[in-house]
Amino acid sequence: MPQPYFRVRNARRRWKYMAHDALAAAFSWLLFYGYRKLFPERVFMGWDAPVEVDLNFYFGLFALPLFWLLAHNFSGYYRDMERKSRLAELSTTIFTTLFGTVVLFFALFLDDVVNNYKDYYINVLVYIACQFFLTWLPRLVHTTLMHRRIRSGKLRFPALLIGDHNGMQELFRTMHPNRYLSGNHLVGYLAPNPISGLEENLPYWGNSTEISKILKERELEDVVISMKETDHQAMQKLITDLHIAGLRIRIHPNMYDIVSGTVRFSNLFETPLIEVHALKMPDWQQTTKRLFDVLVAATMLLLLAPLFLVVALLVSLDSRGGVFYSHERIGLHGKPFQIFKFRSMVAHAEAKGPALSKDGDRRITRIGRWMRKYRVDELPQFYNVLKGDMSLVGPRPERQYFIDQIVEIAPQYVLLHRVRPGITSWGQVKYGYAENVSEMVDRLTFDLLYLQNVNLLLDIKILAFTVITVLRAEGK
To answer: Which of 209, 346, 355, 471 is deepest in the core (most CB within 10 A)?
Structure first.
């Protein structure tokens, strides 16, 4: 399936910003290096000291652009490149520059040759000024030009309106006059029936039950919903389908939403809307979470290597079959991957088809019962974490066979595919292993709560409770 054009466009813009940020980092190092050689070092060593280009210069010229690209990526700056607020961009650039400079100061600049500590502070301020202005000014130019393209109608975001009769009329009345300011290109609307007088400005595409077909046929970026008489089950399925498609979803608020402080908007002239986020974790926390996953997974694979050998020997002696067991599960964005475990059941345990384990399951081997109690069978999944298939914490991945059954009862299950599945989860900690589809649906409540409240502190709590569960041998 070809990648949607707006994502390709975002990727091109991202590379452009990254190229300018790398050049800014190189030029700021060049200016700072020249300043150090011409002023602090000459005062310390004498005015006749020569200005030399040494290995440190070339190292900085290569390493610092790479460092700053990683720092900006860590801050989440390179996401959603076409919807940037210049004020938010300024604050992000200031924060990243200050944080990054502090790191560099202790890593590289602390051993500079200076007269006194005052020169250290001056050096830091000079580097901050060079790095900040050379980074921010090109960004300001690019973002301003992009805003002008949006307001001139050269850059537009195809938007679909969805609502009932009253909600659609009010939504169109508020959005249509401001469509050029926000870049929204209203391409069609969905409603139970065609709305008189609206067809002149906006084509009718059918009702909201046809959303799956429309998403396959049309190139959309935004969806705005306004329903005065809300069918909560229908709304839930609608938003689920839109999240799967990766679209930006916004809802036209009522007075209660405005009073309760739910509404957020950045442009004074835009229509105030509630943006529906599938993942509420800040960008920098998402990056930190992935770095933490990689670090812990690599460390555990190294430290547990002797245990892996012992378990592998026990599994092979206990029953016939391979040491490891793998099968396909569904992960991030609905993509399948191979999950790895130590084999805890007899070979060909699922010869008659997929089946969940239960208390007293005769398919489980003697060593398998011990492994499941202490969750030792899950340890090879650190390899899945290292590969990027999984995270340490996240909803447990399931097989497509069971997902199809769950979705028939709870279509919102597919929202869990917006995050990496985990070795452990809130649902697993609170509910434990599920023995049937009904229990999987019950456990889903906790996984959806995780999705709405995800943050690093919550991940740490879940990991702590998982360790307690392992020590108590409460697995099954």
So the answer is: 346
